Acetylglutamate kinase
Amino acid sequence: MPYHQTERAQVLAEALPYIQKYSGKTVVVKYGGNAMISDELRHAVISDIILLHLVGVRVVVVHGGGPEITDMLNKIGKESKFVDGLRYTDRETMDVVQQVLCGKVNKNLVSTLNRLGGRAIGLCGMDAGLFEARRLDEKYGLVGEITHVDPAAVTDCLNDGYIPVISTVAQGADAETAYNINADTAAAKLAVALHAEKLILLTDIRGLLRDPGDEDTLIPVVELSQVPGLVKDGVIKGGMIPKVDCCVEAVRSGVKSTIILDGRIPHSILIELLSDEGIGTMLL
Ligand SMILES: Nc1ncnc2c1ncn2[C@@H]1O[C@H](COP(=O)(O)OP(=O)(O)O)[C@@H](O)[C@H]1O
Ligand SMILES: CC(=O)N[C@@H](CCC(=O)OP(=O)(O)O)C(=O)O
């Protein structure tokens, strides 16, 4: 028998205990960044999601789309402004966020998943009261802080064999109609509400690096007790602060483990879930 056939069978056989571990469990994947923009990486992520779904993992996709929102704002001659890493969202920006996230990005993702053999259904935070929010702070405009998560619609989709694909526009719990929610934050809140086994945050960097300029300095495992020290030492900074914060909150609230994973590595989700190789930063 040719060597490559034996090797392929070996790889599949080795995945068995991991498939058994995650089958029937809920895994929330926050999808964004390069992995969503490059065709090749998008294809790899989507086929990973379909494969996990087919082996019985209850996969939930929460997507970002920051770069697409920025592009659309540019097209209408509006500059993007960020405050503490969050998009300053005035009323006009909120309309664009809703159009881009709930419309273009969500529907394109659902369509690709379905075309490649998945059974996906698109939802936004307003559907069936999934995410309710109030204004986080005046300084961010219509950026919301999630006050309530009702995961019933997501659970129903999972029970009916669908892959739910969720955009992070929330229903206002006050007089406002809609709030813009950072996708990492929303994914973490949903993972908690679903009692997820794992939260995966796909990003454009290997994980948490001791030296952000050197990709060989990956910190593979971070325990919650180490986080304050890493912030104090300036290791966790910039875009990593909200990411690590929401992982910490998710683990504290019962999610077994969270992982910051490199979406630039093809099939990083499968490597992470179905093998012994830890390739990102796991927070637990
Ligand atoms: N210690 C660190 N390790 C890795 N990245 C870091 C670190 N500190 C700050 N960063 C920055 O955080 C960024 C990831 O956050 P962000 O750009 O918000 O991700 P995303 O767009 O995927 O949500 C990295 O690209 C990097 O510039
Ligand atoms: C409040 C806030 O900043 N919302 C984000 C929502 C999209 C998002 O989070 O997309 P990424 O994951 O691709 O960055 C935004 O408007 O860009």
In short: The chain has ten helices and 14 strands. The pocket of adenosine-5'-diphosphate (ligand 1) is lined by residues 32-33, 184, 203-205, 208-209, 212, 235-240, 243 (CB under 6 Å).
